[in-house]
Amino acid sequence: MPDTHSQTAQPTIQFSDVSLTLGGRKILEKLDLAIPQGQVTAIMGPSGAGKTTLLRLITGQLKPDTGRVLVNGTAVNELSPKALNSYRKQLGVLLQNGALFTDLTCFDNVALPLREHTNLPESLIKNIVLLKLHTVGLRGAAHLYPRELSGGMNRRVAMARAMAMDPQLMLYDEPFAGLDPISMGISLRLIRQVNEALGMTSIVVTHDVHEVRQLAHQACIIANGHVIAFAPPETLQEDPEPLVQQFMQGLPDGPVAFHYPGPSLEADFLDGDQH
Amino acid sequence: MIKPLQEMGKAVVFLGQAISRMRLTSLQFGETLRQIYYAGARSLVIIVTCGFFVGLVLTLQTYDTLTRFGAADAASTVLALSLFRELGPVLTAILFAGRAGTSITAEIGLMRATEQLDALDLMAIDPMERIVQPRLIAGLIAVPALVIIFNMMALLGGVFFAVFVMGNDPMSFWGNMQNSVELGRDFLHGLGKSIGFGFLAAWLAVYFGWSAKATSEGVALATTQTVIATAISVLVLDFVLSAFML
Amino acid sequence: MKSSNQIEITAGIFLALAIAALIFLALQATDRGVVSGGSYEISASFTNIGGLKPKAVVSLGGVSIGTVERIELDPISFEAKVFMQISNDYADLPEDTSASILTAGILGDQYVGLEPGGSPIVLEDGDQVLLTNSAMVLEQLITKYLLSGDAQE
């Protein structure tokens, strides 16, 4: 998609010198990243590269070993539990499978954050919820339970729930995984629309290269704990870095090896009898 | 030996967190009532059936044994005392673990696996408040209620056997029991125990669900652990409470 | 799935059921003292009460009419004084009623058995039964039997 103002916007999220080790494995190493305000930024990378970890750092579910995560100027990793809670109220998060509460109807799912955090009268809550559900095209399904809807619809309801409090920042964790082309098209359009209509900042974790081109103002590729590329998706195509090329073109072998590390082929097969 | 101890420690820390975050203003009465329905009302069938048959078989066995000593009159006393003081609370707690405890564990474990707990956290809603506390309180209320119903059914089973099978006089059966069961020492003692068991069963069920690994094996393992841990700790606690109360 | 209203009503019914059962069991299945409507106290002194304990039954002609309230040792006469609560339904016990400590069966509990006399004057609250038979203590019986056997030889 054409992008005219990506480099001028103020950074709203800033990672500086962030390192994180989880379960003895280095996930992020001295990572620096600035995500501009009011735009859609895609975070891409091979599986296990730490994309979801990055989101969890922004939400404060994880704390970096070193470095700082700044969101709108506040260091998320230094917030007290109470301050973290009030920070999260301005956050909309769409988890991988929607994570709707199965014992509540779609309506109650979307209404939950409003009922918990505001003192709005029930009639006003009803209007807001229906409006949000209307945005994702599921106003008619308000009375249904999540299990009565398809996976794609579940995720749309979850999106309505994430938007319920009118957050300034929306985070999407793999919003396209396992969706059929129609649902994928709908989600794609919704993310972009919501971003523009509400003037929020959106961060989308995904590995669908094709979708990113239609969706994001800029894309960031993470591998081996570093940001290896950060540019509008069109220009990423021309990036000379072999890893970026492998990722963008979906080549089976390259810097990310096809074979799991192990002894060489000869060693395994020719000396096989001696094992 | 280290692992069960570590697990116990974790469960205690978890309980501490759940209770320390409990505030009167945050108590969810509607949700607690719903949990009483799921844990209590829906366990009624198993409790009523088991209670009745335990009463039948207990009376049958005590009649058979006591007749040899010419003390068949004491059958109703033996029935009521063993029910009120031991069998009612212990059996109900173990049945509760199998019926309601496992479903609480599986429910919370699946909430963990499907990221519902994370979602609550991210919406700045404390899952301890919303998920854990209502279930703890519901267990605390539902188990004593089930124990009373279990005892009631078992007595009915005993009366049924004594009157319709043995041809006893119902009034003498009931009267003998009434004379030798004390409200405080026997009946309320058992009720006190059942509150302790209810708390224990709900605590373990919630804890194992909470700490379940977010996979299908993890949830399966957690439900098994709930039943085993509840059965063992109820029997241990039963001994401790009996020793203190008698 | 049931609506949340139905769930709450069912939960309420469940709790009401439990409370009803609780009240029933507490009132009907337990001992609130054999004496339900009013009682009066009489006492009796025994040289030996054997294994008699408070809460033991007081019976007359095999029917329980009261319970043992408390047992004290008279510090002067060294006799055990047994206080009994007798139901007001049996307010007309003759003054010359006798009390014995008996055992229900060989292994059974000990209880106080009353044997009514023929006096027209009745026992009042706080009165003492004067005619008493102490408990049979097995060891004493055996000793008595052995000693009397010795004496005959």
Query: How much strand content do the residues of chain B show?
Result: under 5%
Give the fraction of residues assigned to helices of chain B.
Answer: over 70%
User: What's the number of helices of chain C?
Assistant: 2
Number of domains as seen in the coordinates of chain B: 1
Q: Give the biggest sheet of chain C.
A: 8 strands, mixed
Tell me the greatest interface. B-C, 32 and 29 residues
Provide a count of the helices of chain B.
Answer: 9
Question: If you average the pLDDT of chain B, what whole number results?
Answer: 88
Overall description:
Chain A is an alpha/beta fold. Chain A is 36% helix and 23% strand. In chain A, the strands form 2 sheets. A 6-stranded mixed β-sheet of chain A has the order 6-7-8-3-9-10, sandwiched between helices. Chain B has one domain. Chain B starts with a helix and ends with a helix. In chain B, α2 runs parallel beside α6, α4 packs parallel to α8 and α8 (183-210) runs antiparallel to α9. Chain C has 2 domains: 1-30; 39-142, no CATH class. Chain C is built from 2 helices and 8 strands. The interface between A and B is medium-sized, with 21 and 10 residues.
